[in-house]
Amino acid sequence: MKSNIEKVYSKLPKTELATQKVEFSAADDIAKILSQVEKAITDANAKLKEFKDAKDEFAKAEAKALKVRATKAKAEASADKMVAQAFKVIDKVGKQADDLGVNRRDVKGFDKLDDLIIELDDKSADIANYDFNLGQ
């Protein structure tokens, strides 16, 4: 028969080994997850930098668009003014050609100016109707 001391003594090494085994297993789990967490932090930092860069780029583009949008009315007025001036020249040349009995289309540059007036008038309308909606 074993004495009480022998019984306790025989049980101690087994308990210590089991404890050490649990500790090693926990250390392995920590080591494994540590590298995964470090990689996740690196990935998160990269994503945050990407977000910041995109936000900065958007802010620059928005500032530029707002600056350009502020010139919209002036650009439209300038184009409209030029169209009006060109129409005056076309009308004047047309009347002079009619007075002389010459076909206005035979006057050098008349057709080209007439075409360009139409194009500029279309551009002016495009400026007037341009959608600068920036999500505001």
Query: End-to-end distance, in Å?
Result: 90 Å
Strand content: under 5%
Write down the secondary-structure element order. HHH
- What's the β-strand tally? 0
Mean pLDDT: 85
Shape: rod-shaped
Structural class: mainly alpha
Unreliable stretches, pLDDT < 50, 5 or more residues?
Answer: none
Radius of gyration: 42 Å
Give a summary of the structure in a few sentences.
The protein is mostly helical and 136 residues long. It has 3 helices and no strands. The mean pLDDT is 85.
List keywords for this structure.
mainly alpha; 85% helix; single chain; 136 residues
Q: How does this structure look, described?
A:
- The chain is mainly α and 136 residues long.
- It has two domains: 1-70; 71-136.
- 85% of the residues lie in helices and 0% in strands.
- Helix 2 (72-100) runs antiparallel to helix 3 (110-129).
- 0% of the residues are buried.
- The model has no long low-confidence stretch (mean pLDDT 85).
Write the layout of secondary structure elements.
Elements lengths: L3 H66 L2 H29 L9 H20 L7
